[in-house]
Design goal:
Length: 139
């Protein structure tokens, strides 16, 4: 096992399986660069169930990435840009971080942003169950 993926899955199995003493599950992206036959074989031998997700579908599986964290990061970037323009030549220090993050956090990490994200996820899962051949990556 000379590969990073193999080293990761081996250390995962040693730390988790010993602690739980039973079959465990590991989620990973089903992309050729992430999944290797030796990793699959090792996992099978050591009681690790690999749950894989299609590549490029985090927007469908992680609703807060789209509905909350994306808007928060854009608002935070804007807050930082405003501060930099008002303080030319200075760098943002740890002392300014909380103050610059407060506005974007309070405006973007809200129930109004969180609930629609999960609603889209549930809607997508229901559509996927009803129409399994439908491409859910564009919902």
């Amino acid at each position: 096992m000379d590969d990073c993926r193999q080293l990761f899955i081996k250390s995962y199995s040693l730390s988790i399986s010993r602690w739980l003493n039973k079959t465990t599950a590991r989620t990973m992206v089903n992309h050729a660069s992430h999944v290797d036959f030796r990793v699959i074989d090792y996992s099978k031998e050591n009681g690790i169930v690999l749950l894989t997700f299609p590549p490029h579908c985090s927007h469908a599986l992680q609703p807060c990435d789209v509905s909350v964290f994306g808007p928060f990061k854009r608002a935070l970037r804007s807050s930082h840009n405003d501060w930099i323009q008002m303080n030319p030549g200075k760098r943002i220090s740890i002392k300014e971080t909380a103050g610059l993050s407060k506005g974007p956090f309070l405006s973007k990490v809200t129930a109004e942003n969180i609930i629609p994200g999960f609603s889209r996820l549930v809607y997508g899962l229901l559509i996927g169950l009803l129409f399994p051949r439908l491409n859910l990556l564009h919902l």
